[in-house]
Amino acid sequence: MNQIEKVDRFRAKNRDNRVWYSGAVHILFNATCLIGTTIGSLFQISDLKPLELFTIPVMLIAGNLAVYLIHRYPLHTKYPYIHKGSYGEHTLFHHRFYTNENFQVVKKEDVDTNSLFFPPVVVIVFCLIFIPSLYFILNLFLPTNIVFLALGMSSFYFILYETVHYTSHLPENHWVLRISHLQRMRQHHMDHHNPKHMSSYNFNIVFPLFDHVFGTCRR
Ligand SMILES: [Zn+2]
Ligand SMILES: [Zn+2]
Questions:
Q1: DSSP output for 123-185
Q2: Distance, CA 40 to ligand 1 centroid (Å)?
Q3: What is the pLDDT of residues 75-85, one digit of tens each?
Q4: Helical pair 144-168 and 180-192, crossing angle rounded to 10 deg
Q5: For the chain, which residues score pLDDT lower than 70?
Q6: What is the end-to-end Cα distance of the chain in Å, rounded?
Q7: How far is the CA of 33 from the centre of ligand 2 (A)?
Q8: 159 neighbors 34 (Cβ within 8 angstroms)
Q9: d(C-alpha 124, C-alpha 29), whole Å
Q10: Rounded distance, CA 194 to CA 101, Å?
Q11: Separation of CA 6 from chain center
Q12: Which of 47, 112, 122, 152 is most buried, with most CB under 10 Å away?
């Protein structure tokens, strides 16, 4: 059986095994939590000074590094205790569902197999534990506006991640991929889905900054 047939069989099995999962509810839940956290944080800002806007590029770089490290290590390395939810969900499921030769969402049911977006529990932990913890830490030494801009940008980067990862798995001729950056990131991510390269190359999703920094960019 070749790789494409293997993926087809894996997808069919998982489409059939769906129980109560709904892709639309999953997307709506993640979007509500993350957009709510972004807007809620940004609404706390008042009298923003031009210099405080430097928080935006700093957080884009920090988000890029965070995604790189999370993707390269827990999602592609087996660590005790957490591997089922991290390595298992990503390397063993997402990467079996989508390989470089069978990369795109084919049917609506593919979105409905819980194969594309971060699980709601990760979003809940992010919004209810990570964001408040970051608030208490940053609030110790940074002005309020910078703290809330950093929180808003953290959540916004999560939205960027989910969006660009989703568009990367769309068919190559989808209208949204006329945006050249999204088309480039699709190619970047498709190369990552080659089973031979997935543990070594192309861990960034939104823009490939830290793949360049750490020498893991493969074209
Ligand atoms: Zn992917
Ligand atoms: Zn991966």
A1: HHHIIIIIHHHHHHHHTTTS-HHHHHHHHHHHHHHHHHHHHHHHHHTS-TT-GGGGSHHHHHH
A2: 29
A3: 999 999 888 88
A4: 70
A5: 14-20, 108-114
A6: 28
A7: 24
A8: yes
A9: 10
A10: 8
A11: 25
A12: 152
Question: Is the distance from CB of 63 to CB of 173 less than 8 angstroms?
Answer: no
CB 23 within 8 A of CB 112: yes
169 Cα to the center of ligand 1, angstroms = 7
Tokens encoding 50: 């031009």
**Predicted pLDDT at 110:** 63
Ligand nearest to the CA of 118: 1
DSSP-assigned letter for residue 102 = B
What is the Cα 44 distance to its own chain's centre?
26
Using the mean position of ligand 2's atoms as its centre, give its distance from the Cα of residue 90 in Å: 6
Residue type, position 64, single letter: N
Q: Please tell me the distance between residue 71's alpha carbon and the centre of ligand 1 in angstroms.
A: 11
How many angstroms is it from 172 CA to the middle of ligand 1? Answer: 14
Distance 81 CA to ligand 2 centre (A): 19
Residue with tokens 């390397």: 91
Beta bridge partners of 99: 102
The ligand minimizing its distance to the Cα of 192 is 2
202 CA to middle of ligand 2, Å? 8
What is the Å distance from ligand 1's center to 168 Cα?
7
Ligand nearest to the CA of 186: 1
